């Protein structure tokens, strides 16, 4: 079956929302295959976010993702990549639809980077690449 990488980012872990986010993933019907708490170092984050290098939010993003532990999840299910992106909602938590993780639990804190609680791989290629990084 298809697999994806889901991250509960440091804001989600710090706010105690890991359980609520895992609950939503499981309630949707996806299976947790593997899960770990990671203090991501710069090397891992630079590889994970290589596509954003040079953008104005890149440095704040790496700093934010280094600010505390992240929960990395290997999840499985038919169309889980698309399905989790839908559960997560759009990138900006202020306008993400209610009913989604970002829309229900997130907001803009006026910082240089959008703290939006979760990450989900956006394609099968990204999922394979990101799972290899976080579950090396
Ligand atoms: P991920 O699942 O985390 O990859 O989110 P995404 O796919 O919805 O967004 P994207 O990959 O485009 O950007 C990665 C992360 O960078 C986002 O989750 C935000 O934390 C941050 N980010 C993206 N775009 C912006 C932006 O325009 N402004 C700011 N301040 N942060 C951004
Ligand atoms: Mg992305």
Automatic annotation (TrEMBL):
The portions of this protein that span the membrane are: none
Q: Does the keyword Cell division apply?
A: no
Recorded GO molecular functions are:
kinase activity
Required cofactors, per record? Mg(2+)
A Pfam family of the record is NDK
Record CDD domains: NDPk_I
Where is ATP bound in this sequence? 9, 57, 85, 91, 102, 116
Quick check: keyword Transferase in the entry?
A: yes
> What reaction is this protein's catalytic activity?
a 2'-deoxyribonucleoside 5'-diphosphate + ATP = a 2'-deoxyribonucleoside 5'-triphosphate + ADP
The Nucleoside diphosphate kinase-like domain extends over 1-136
Where does the source fall among the domains of life? Bacteria
Q: Which SMART domains match?
A: NDK (SM00562)
Give the matching InterPro entries: NDK-like_dom, NDK-like_dom_sf, Nucleoside_diP_kinase, Nucleoside_diP_kinase_AS
Q: Which UniProt keywords apply?
A: ATP-binding, Kinase, Nucleotide metabolism, Nucleotide-binding, Transferase
Catalytic residues per the record? Answer: 119
State the EC number(s).
Answer: 2.7.4.6
> What's the family?
Belongs to the NDK family.
Q: What is this protein called?
A: Nucleoside diphosphate kinase
Q: Which organism is it from?
A: Leucobacter iarius
């Amino acid at each position: 079956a298809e697999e994806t990488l889901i991250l509960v980012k440091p804001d989600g872990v710090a706010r105690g929302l890991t359980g609520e986010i895992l609950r939503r993933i499981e309630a949707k019907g996806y299976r947790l295959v593997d899960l770990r708490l990671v203090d991501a170092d710069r090397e891992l984050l630079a590889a994970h976010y290589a596509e954003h290098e040079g953008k104005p939010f890149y440095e704040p993003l790496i700093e934010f993702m280094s600010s505390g532990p992240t929960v990395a999840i290997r999840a499985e299910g038919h169309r889980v990549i698309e399905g989790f992106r839908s559960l997560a909602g759009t990138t900006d938590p202020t306008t993400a639809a209610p009913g989604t993780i970002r829309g229900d639990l997130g907001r803009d804190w006026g910082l240089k980077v959008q703290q939006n609680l979760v990450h989900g791989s956006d394609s099968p290629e990204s999922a394979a690449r990101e799972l290899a990084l976080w579950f090396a």
